[in-house]
Amino acid sequence: MTQNVGTIDRIIRIVVGLLLIAYAIPIWFVPSAWNWVGWIGVIPLLTGVFGTCPLYSLLGLTTCPLNRSGR
User: Fold this and answer.
1) C-beta contacts of 62-69 below 8 A and 24+ residues apart
2) Which residues of 35-61 are buried (b: 16+ CB within 10 A; e: fewer)?
3) How far apart are CA 68 and CA 19, in angstroms?
4) Integer Cα distance of 10 and 2 in angstroms
5) What is the distance between the alpha carbons of residues 6 and 21, in angstroms, rounded to a whole number?
6) Residue 52: φ, ψ to 5°
7) 28 φ, ψ to 5°?
8) What is the C-alpha to C-alpha distance for residues 38 and 27, in angstroms, rounded to an integer?
9) What is the number of other CB atoms lying within 10 angstroms of the CB of residue 22?
10) How far is it, in rounded angstroms, from Cα 61 to Cα 63?
């Protein structure tokens, strides 16, 4: 797969993913019945690390400047 996630987008995804995962593991946050929701953070974390978003591919979007011109 080609990269379709730009640098700023990747940084935001990684930070949000890590924060959500930190919420799932209640070390700094108050334990609650909703902590499992934090595991959703795995998705933005992985898309940020690999630089490819399947949803962007389906919609034909890209934030990567290298892939904007040619398709």
Assistant:
1) 62/4, 62/5, 62/6, 63/4, 63/5, 63/6, 63/8, 63/9, 64/3, 64/4, 64/5, 64/6, 65/6, 66/3, 67/2, 67/3, 67/4
2) eeebeebebbbebbeebbbeebeeeee
3) 30
4) 14
5) 22
6) -130, 130
7) -100, -10
8) 13
9) 14
10) 7
Domain residue limits, the chain? 7-64
Q: Which pTM value belongs to this model?
A: 0.85
Q: Which two tokens stand for residue 65?
A: 């400047």
State pLDDT tens for residues 13-62: 999 999 999 999 887 778 888 899 999 999 999 999 999 999 999 999 99
